[in-house]
Design brief:
By secondary structure, the chain is mainly α. The protein has one domain. 83% of the residues lie in helices and 0% in strands. The chain is built from eleven helices and no strands. Helix 2 packs antiparallel against helix 4 and helix 4 runs antiparallel to helix 6. The radius of gyration is 19 Å and the shape is globular. The model has no long low-confidence stretch (mean pLDDT 95). Heterodimer of a catalytic subunit (MsrP) and a heme-binding subunit (MsrQ). It holds the Pfam family Ferric_reduct. It is a multi-pass membrane protein. InterPro entries: Fe3_Rdtase_TM_dom, MsrQ-like.
Length: 206
């Protein structure tokens, strides 16, 4: 019972930690500290937040293998859903502050900024994964669930492409995220994945 309470606290703590950046950015807008373009401020920060959430979600499996700590596995679905929530809010910021809800502009916008299509495909992918992350969908999909959720790797690639297309001038920030993504993906390569439990044994001995 005590253990269950600790896990609940852990989950609630993660929930509050994931919510905090959104509250902070909204607060900055509310007190006029978000610069001359608060809409763009929200759009860009929430976009980076969505990428962070995706990277954190994908790092949980290698971290579980490395540490065997149950806590990482317990928050996987929650962080996956946070990724979807951040990405949806990012898209809503675009619709509200850039398009001004004028959907007639979308066609010319897509021609001007083709990376929007890449972002849209990534968001649709995240929505499919979010909708199939519950127990019912897991049961229904059976063996197909795992391959479907490996699509998250493709989504990560799409998001990095979307981001790459946006920056152009200074690639340093993008390169840091791409390096983190490459590291997380490398832990999934079978030879690397096999060494993680061995590394855990070695670490626990020292
Ligand atoms: C319908 C889907 C999407 C739309 C319409 C969209 C739109 C945009 C726009 C307009 C920008 C800013 C470009 C500028 O500097 O003017 C942007 C940047 C960005 N987006 Fe998206 N996006 C979408 C999906 C996503 C998703 C799914 C993610 C991540 C999971 C994401 C992550 C980012 C990141 C990291 C940036 C760069 C932020 C920065 O430069 O600081 N976007 N997006």
């Amino acid at each position: 019972m005590a253990a269950q309470r600790v896990w609940l606290l852990w989950r609630v703590g993660v929930f509050l930690a994931a919510l905090t950046p959104l509250l902070f950015w909204s607060g900055q807008v509310a007190i006029n500290a978000a610069g001359p373009e608060p809409g763009r401020y929200l759009l860009l920060n929430i976009g980076i937040g969505a990428l962070w959430m995706l990277l954190l979600t994908l790092s949980l499996t290698p971290l579980t293998k490395l540490t065997r700590w149950k806590g990482f596995a317990l928050i996987r679905r929650q962080l996956g859903l946070w990724t979807l929530a951040y990405a949806t809010l990012h898209m809503l910021c675009y619709a509200l502050f850039i398009l001004g809800l004028n959907w007639a502009l979308l066609g010319s916008e897509i021609i001007k900024r083709p990376y929007i299509i890449v972002g849209m495909i990534a968001l649709i992918g995240l929505a499919v994964l979010g909708a199939t992350s519950n127990r019912w969908a897991m049961k229904r999909l059976g063996k197909r669930w795992k391959p479907l959720h490996k699509f998250s790797y493709v989504i990560l690639g799409l998001v990095l492409l979307h981001f790459f297309w946006v920056v152009r001038a200074d690639m340093r920030e993008w390169a840091i995220y791409a390096a983190i993504a490459a590291l997380i993906m490398a832990t999934r390569l079978p030879p690397v994945a096999r060494t993680l439990p061995k590394l855990r044994h070695r670490l626990s001995r020292t």
